[in-house]
Amino acid sequence: MSATPVLALRGVSKRFGAVQALTDVHLAVHAGEVVALVGDNGAGKSTLVKAIAGVGPADEGAFVWQGRPERVTRPHDAQALGVATVYQDLALCDNLDVVGNLFLGREIHRSGVLDEVEMERRSRELLQTLSIRIPSVRIPVASLSGGQRQTVAIARSMLGEPSLVILDEPTAALGVEQTAQVLDLVERLRERGLAVLLISHNMADVKAVADTVAVLRLGRNNGVFDVATTSQEEVIAAITGATENAVTRRKARTAEAPQ
Amino acid sequence: MSTDVTKSQGEPGGAAHDGAAPAAVPATDPRLLVREQGLAGYWADFTRRMRSGELGSVPVVVGLAVIWLVFWLLDDKFLSAQNLSNLSVYVVGTGLISVGVVFVLLLGEIDLSVGSVSGLAGAVFAVLAVNEGVPEWLALVAALLTGCLAGVVHGFFFARVGVPAFVVTLAGLLFWNGLMLQVLASDGTINLRDGGLVRQLTSYYFTDVAAAYGLALIAVLGYFTAQWHEHRRRTAAQVPARPVNEIVVRTAVLAALAFAAAYMLNQYRGLPLALLVFLAVLVAFDFLLRRTGYGRRVFALGGNTEAARRAGIDVAAVRISVFALAGTLAAFGGLLIASRIAAANQGAGSGVLLMEAIAAAVIGGTSLFGGRGTVWSALLGMLVIGSISNGLALLGSPSHVQYMITGAVLLAAVVIDSVSRRTQRTAGRT
């Protein structure tokens, strides 16, 4: 893990009218590291992601990219730096095949005509290096399963050779097997030396793939934890804002019951 | 049991990412969609497509065969050379309008103004060329530009202002029809000059038998060369290629159809210029749609507009250009219709023309829901509609019967479209 983080946010704040969505938030993501961003609904996760992706720029705070401060005010700025965002709705065209979706908006041309052969070759190569299993790169995305669609969306983000990949709830709508596929893929992104910011509600997923957990609560930082040395209860306590709450009480009860 | 315990102790904390991700596996899942060699493989692949709702042009081809068979049994003049040759000229005008409709349908929108625009184009041409004495080619360009401009206006209000295309083009239907009546003004009907450029479009035949056979030969050779070239490039790049025997079979089928059509046309007056124009337009726009970045953007917009926007596609520009294209093709179709009836009159562009143009695209297999279809559906759909009206006319049936039958066929096509879409959804989620 390199000393300089790929992305460091310092003192980020954002207001929507009368609502202070983010207050003085700090976040650092290093190359080869999976950082899980967790928090309850309304904690500011999406607002923070939009600030990083340039969709909804922050009002205050520093955006430090590989040690240099940068200004990100449009999605294009973030993409140019090397931030790839996979939104929860995936933004795939159901009627296009896998190749068409991967290269949508950046088609390869050969004397003015689409170079389908080259795009198909590169698609297979990309899917192969990410160990993504798809029935065929020439079938419409509509006929893929939810997990396969998610992996296609993630693979597409990789075409721009990003340094940071943001995944917004990648496993929210997936079954057990498909979740495992996506988590495998997240690990492969890390092995390739990318920084990954994973937004998730699912503590099991966070525990499974993340190195670090950053907790947001009511728009503020509420602790950054090392996954290996932190118990799930501590993280949940940070999310809910108390060590004594409904979740821990229930845990305690169920733990005592069998004895 | 004991081995399990020691194993879990060997991985402190049991953190899942201690285990490395599985080694690379082939990108294609070998369990699925690999076609077996030989005929059995083709049959299995075909039934799988049918079951999962990828019907493509199968229903319309089957339907067309049934229609031809029925009319032939009722009156064997239906499949005579003269009748088929006339049919091939009849379908061209509405067919060209339908090509533009296919583009609009691919966006998931509809253009109700194409009938009026085609009538307007015919009127503009007739007034300029006949009344004002403008050279015919210049009048033709002016008529096409009129259609293009009408399309740009529709596209602007739809894409930039955000009015639903249905309403914009409904307004266009009225407005352009009114403008046509204004242009024709005093004289209700303007007869086109015999032997003029536009008149020739539907009256000229290449009487030399070499023309029709030559065109068939060029089509077959061109298709085979393109397929063979693609096969070699794919093999060189080590991506799956269409097997050689499949290319040969496809080329053979095309050759049989092309030469049969050429033989038939030569039995009457030879290759009609109108048919040549229509085929050229179909090939050109098929290429535009399937082989260029522009076509890919049209499909993407029909599939998921938001995804297209996020991929950096200029949504408004593509939408305006598609409506401009539909307007231009409607104008071109209008000129061919004026050419066929040798006049521009006040009734042009009204009646069933609009319905036929949209119905042809849908009957031919282009989805009303956007994102699925080909320009060839304009040809196939028009052949169905043209055959019905032509066959019923031969049998001496009144036109209201024709309306009812065409309406029923359109309903059947839309039902097939809707059901296949639903089947695709369910098949896609297995």
Describe this structure in words.
The complex is a heterodimer of chains A (259) and B (430). With 259 residues, chain A is of the alpha/beta class. Chain A is built from nine helices and twelve strands. Chain A has helices spanning 45-53, 75-81, 98-102, 116-129, 146-158, 176-191, 203-209, 232-240, 246-256, and strands spanning 7-16, 19-29, 34-38, 60-65, 68-70, 83-86, 109-110, 113-114, 164-168, 195-199, 212-217, 220-226. In chain A, strands 6-9-10-3-11-12 form a six-stranded mixed beta sheet, sandwiched between helices. In chain A, strands 2-1-4-5 form a four-stranded antiparallel beta sheet, with helices on one face. In chain A, strand 7 (109-110) and strand 8 form a beta hairpin. Chain A is globular. The termini of chain A are far apart. Chain B is mainly alpha-helical and 430 residues long. In chain B, 73% of the residues lie in helices and 2% in strands. In chain B, strands 1-4 form a two-stranded antiparallel sheet. In chain B, strands 2-3 form a two-stranded antiparallel ribbon. The radius of gyration of chain B is 26 Å and the shape is globular. The model of chain B is unreliable at 1-33 (pLDDT under 50).
